[in-house]
Amino acid sequence: MDISPLQRVRYAYQPKLPAILRESITKVAPQKGEATSAQSDADRIKALFPNTYGLPRVSFLSGVNTDISKKRNVGVILSGGQAPGGHNVISGIFDALKAANRENTLYGFKGGPSGILEDSYRIIDEEYLAAFRNTGGFDIIGSGRTKLETEEQFEVCAQVCKNHEIDALVIIGGDDSNTNAAVLAEYFLAKGHGIQVIGCPKTIDGDLKNESIEISFGFDTATKTYSELIGNIERDANSAKKYWHFIKLMGRSASHIALECALETQPNVCLISEEVEAKEQSLVSIVDYIAKIVAERAEDGNNFGVALIPEGLIEFIPEIKVLISQINNLLAKEEKAFNKIADGSERIAFVAERLSKETAKVFTILPEEIQKQLLMDRDPHGNVQVSRIETDKLLAQMVEEKLSGMKKEGTYTGKFSSMTHFFGYEGRCAFPTNFDADYCYSLGYNAFLLIGSGLSGYLSSVTNLAAPAEEWKAGGIPITMMMNMEVRHGEDKPVIKKALVELDGKPFQYFAEHRDKWARETCYTYPGAVQYFGPAEVCDLTTVTLALEQTR
Ligand code: FBP
Questions:
Q1: N or C: which end of the chain has fewer CB within 10 A?
Q2: What is the complex's ipTM, to 2 decimals?
Q3: pLDDT for the residue numbered 376
């Protein structure tokens, strides 16, 4: 394989573990804390998870754990979207598993959860793993979005594990994958299969968190990658002084990524979907808000700026939410008639005529391209794929229209020229930052300790993350503790509660206190490229979000 100079030297990086995990593996023992409950709906979660509800939190401390040396085979699955550091989770599991017993074997199921259903795997050995240590991507075994959710699938998993004498599975995934890990753990216990299941918190979106999961892995690297690019664009904007840049940022529903990037780069505008929903802001009021900032900056002679837009925004704007739901119902009902019409303006007219009067008004003020995007491919559940809607272009175009109206009224005299961008995939497979490299390796190493302690239905938890790695704490939390009941596809389901941006939390509060100044003045900060070698205060820093959350 041809490798870059950086890749070559990253192979030699030794990820940092919390002090407790640096002890000999037989001298680390679990200490059980108090029994836990659920996020809410405790009685219903308890009834659905009789074997895994209410388990205690676990912390690792010095002690004796001779059981850990028992021979074990472990299977690992990468689930969902890529997040930097997945390879290091696998490295951590591997190193702990071999430290416990050289005879242990690690099975990597290929292509995500479908790998176990199809018994498609590869044995991960030292030589194969060496080419992936400290690198981004999930290409070591691949990932996928198949969900493990039916009993039939669970039985296949059990059989595949039994065929390979696999004692435990580690599922590396986001909220949905870990919800399914909890259901699988419960199923294996109920059926007496004797296979343990441990989860690891992954997703660049940062929406899988609580006091025991302070951050999901990949968020640090992805936001630093985007922030570097945003900072570069800000400097370009401030040099040429002629463009407004509208930058859409990945992150699905939650706006954690947009908020973190705003804290790192101090742009002129950053929309937070959770605030838009709480304040019931309409699309027009969002456009007015941005146009006002553009006009005020123009008064100071600054016909340039940078606006950050979370990719899920459109779902949080009240009237667009109604529009999307009416279109979904309409297309489900009138699918045949709709499909007979050729793409384009006739389809738009067909839909506009059938919406309620109020909603038709919302639809018709949207630019034609966006109208078309709202009508294109549904996902398997019949929903619009909101991340494919070009909100950056929508807002840039609507702001331009608003400004030309203001010009006619004489309330705006500046010049407006916009550029649009979407940052998403470029952040998901970057070389993990030192933080993600260390955190992921620790999560993986710790996951094996949970297995070696006989636990199942737990999520690997490494905390105190704003401190240096040696002060991190290691342990596990029962996944049921993070669950509540939600309606999914018309049915009540136990799921891990998605963590959205908290408007009374310190990161948002800090942003809200500063945003007016950042809007009018030019206060950009330039984070620069991720640094892998050099002083710890540059290379090992984690996110501003985490630092603010952990200030007392
Ligand atoms: P996960 O929740 O699986 O970690 O995926 C995160 C994500 O990158 C979202 O931010 C984004 O909306 C989505 O995946 C894109 O999915 P796909 O890779 O299927 O296009």
A1: C
A2: 0.97
A3: 82
